[in-house]
Design goal:
Elements (H helix, E strand, L loop, with lengths): L5 H13 L4 E2 L5 E11 L11 H13 L18 H6 L10 H6 L6 H11 L7 E3 L5 H4 L11 E9 L2 E8 L2 E2 L2 H25 L4 E15 L8
Helix pairs in contact: 5-7
Length: about 230
């Protein structure tokens, strides 16, 4: 079965831009949307370039499980957090979407460890899922003036032929900034889990493919210039 690639997704957005097939968002800004996107994440960016400095900082922040955006670059660093995080945070800098906190912390049942244990014991399992979003987000997304309705719904992991693949399921994903930063995190977790499974199972488990599923994949008008 052929699964679309990043190249196909790129062509879709170029075509929609040329056809001026726009949706108007709540701010009155034009957007291009792809609803129900499903493709192989075989490239680290769709449009734009990777900011490796920021990617490294964000992954470290996730690994440290801080829910305060002022910790992204480290306390004492004068560089402000990205505007998207500022928009999501309350006046104290608190957010919901520290992905490391969501998969490592006991509050959310240490899901990384649960998946590691599950796939170590049952490599053919279909239960190796880390759930990022939660029903309570309806009450928590705007708590204390936050604006942070978690974008990733869940990620499921499968060992097939000694290869660890995953399926990333997202509620919403910005093509330019969102995809490349989320992709970097999901690659990091996939490789980490493959290494840990290799150790616990006593056999090499290769880091494999990422299947990317998004309910709403979109480009904002301010980024149309990147859609070439």
């Amino acid at each position: 079965m052929y699964l679309p690639s990043v190249t196909d997704i790129r062509k879709f957005f170029v075509g929609e831009l040329n056809d001026e097939a726009f949706t108007i968002d709540k701010t009155g800004q034009k957007t291009i949307e792809l609803i129900g996107a499903n493709f192989m994440a075989d490239e680290p960016v769709i449009f734009g370039e990777v900011n490796q400095y920021y990617v490294d900082a964000e992954i470290t922040w996730y690994e440290n499980q801080s829910t305060n955006i002022h910790d992204i670059y480290g306390r004492g660093n004068q560089q402000p957090p990205p505007k998207a995080w500022q928009y999501a945070a309350n006046e104290h800098g608190e957010i919901n979407s520290n992905y490391g906190y969501l998969i490592y912390h006991p509050r959310f049942y240490q899901q990384y460890d649960q998946v590691l244990d599950e796939l170590s014991a049952r490599p053919d399992s279909r239960r190796g899922t880390m759930i990022y979003n939660r029903p309570s987000i309806w009450k928590e997304f705007n708590d204390n003036d936050k604006n942070d309705f978690i974008c990733t719904n869940a990620v499921s992991y499968y060992i097939r032929d000694n290869r660890l693949d995953c399926v990333v399921q997202m509620r919403s994903n910005d093509v330019v900034f969102g995809y490349k930063n989320d992709y970097a995190w999901q690659q990091f977790v996939l490789k980490k889990l493959a290494n840990d499974l290799s150790f616990t199972r006593g056999e090499e488990i290769e880091s494999g493919y990422i299947h990317w599923q998004v309910q709403n994949l979109h480009v904002y008008e301010r980024h149309f210039k990147l859609v070439k």
